[in-house]
Design goal:
DUF1444; 7-stranded antiparallel sheet; DUF1444 family protein; globular; alpha+beta; Protein Transport Mog1p, Chain A
């Protein structure tokens, strides 16, 4: 079982939530096309994390024989010496450990090696395994072995969090989604498309948000996908009354919705939208009982509405929505007893969209007794912190970046500034 890391440490999350590794905040994280690396400050040392997934088609005994051994990884070094398997009782979750020395940057000519000599660097490798997943962690020293650095890495690895049942990688998830839809709707044509989409008859499903939800709860694959698949099939039976209903039928269900601007421009150009701040755009939806659908540009013409008319109707409906079911807020006070951090107690589809209501922002500023910095990593959640607490702002910013990478309806990892003049994107000079 993983130990608890210090609270101030940063988090590095692997693909598909395959690992969560806490590290000192000054260590720099890098993502190299699926391979992850951490660099300690003022050092040429490197901690690399590689993930290897083996197809489920093999049985457990065959997987054990096919998964690469640490020796196979060591063989990739140009030159090695003093290689040995070592016991690592201080990292109990490791299934294997090796150490040695290697030359990585070989001179191409014999005379170059003669003049410069070989630069040998000490290294140590740990292997961790969960089912079909193998994780190899390699510490490459700057030169000779650094005992203090190795001790720090051991501490980090004792805090390494690994899922008991790892989520499938995206390509396996997509294939399983195709198989599920073919099983549930055998009379419909189902295809796997590019860009992580599947087509069920005439409907297309983008799997990105479903996959984000799945990696957090891999045991709920069917529950995550089936409702959306069923809705997609039902929509195919809709007539014009459902796809282009009269305004009087949907007027009370028109709601605003924040969305990433670049995704909107790239994939939904026919949906009516208005750019907002921090790379976000305001879209409009018709709220159904268990879902919502986006308002297309041509509908406003049919309804005889200008974009401003639609916005005012949607904001009025949003305010009525929260009057019927008030938002409960969790509030943390500063040492002086002044509210410092505020966030919704429960997730809600329209939580973040409520930042479009001027009256709500005024209430938040009144409670905080001043301006606020806000993070909106996803559709269902926001966090607000007083600008009078710059250290807290920095910590919240780090958490927002983490949440943005994991939430299933991501918005932005950029921060907002709320003042009496409204909402703008935060720049570093705004909080001192």
């Amino acid at each position: 079982m993983a130990e608890t890391a210090p609270d101030h440490w940063s988090l590095l999350s692997g693909p598909a939530n395959w690992f969560r590794l806490r590290h000192p905040p000054r260590w720099q994280a890098e993502d190299r096309q699926g391979a992850y690396a951490l660099r300690p400050p003022d050092s040429e040392a490197l901690l690399a994390i590689n993930t290897i997934w083996l197809s489920e088609e093999r049985d457990s005994e065959e997987r054990a024989n096919v998964l690469p051994r640490l020796q196979d990884v060591v063989d990739q070094f140009p030159r090695v010496k003093n290689v040995e398997a070592v016991a690592e009782p201080q990292v109990p979750d490791a299934v294997d450990c090796m150490q040695g020395e290697a030359v990585l940057d070989l001179e191409k000519t014999w005379w170059g090696r003669l003049l410069k000599g070989d630069r040998w660097r000490a290294w140590k490798m740990w292997a961790f395994q969960r089912s079909q997943l193998l994780i190899v962690v390699t510490l490459l020293h700057a030169g000779e072995r650094d005992p203090e650095l190795e001790s720090m890495v051991r501490l980090m690895l004792r805090c390494l969090e690994l899922p008991e049942h790892p989520a499938d990688p995206p390509e396996v998830f997509a294939q399983r989604a195709v198989e599920l839809s073919r099983k549930k709707f055998p009379l419909l044509k189902v295809e796997l498309l590019s860009d992580f989409q599947i087509q069920i008859a005439t409907s297309r499903l983008n799997l990105a948000n479903f996959y984000r939800a799945y990696v957090r709860e891999p045991d709920k694959f069917d529950q995550i996908l089936l409702p959306a698949m069923t809705t997609a099939v039902q929509v195919q039976g809709w007539g014009e009354q459902e796809t282009a209903p009269p305004l009087e039928i949907v007027r009370d269900r028109l709601m605003p919705m924040l969305y990433p601007e670049q995704v909107w421009r790239d994939k939904f150009p026919d949906i009516l939208g208005e750019p907002w701040v921090a790379g976000l755009v305001i879209l409009y939806v018709v709220d159904e009982s268990n879902a919502y659908w986006y308002v297309r540009k041509e509908l406003t013409g049919k309804w005889g509405l200008t974009p401003q008319d639609l916005h005012e109707i949607a904001i009025d409906n949003l305010q009525s929505y929260f009057e019927r079911q008030p938002m409960e807020m969790a509030v943390a006070n500063s040492e002086e007893g002044v509210p410092a951090v505020m966030m919704p107690s429960k997730p809600d589809t329209y939580n973040t969209t409520r930042l479009l209501c001027h009256s709500f922002l005024s209430q938040l500023r009144e409670v905080a007794q001043g301006d606020l910095v806000m993070g909106v990593p996803g559709r269902d959640f926001f966090v607000a912190v007083s600008t009078r607490l710059p250290e807290m702002v920095g910590r919240i910013r780090a958490r927002v970046r983490e949440d943005y990478e994991q939430t299933d309806h991501p918005l932005t990892n950029r921060m907002l500034l709320v003042t009496a003049d409204g909402v703008s994107e935060l720049i570093d000079d705004d909080v001192q």
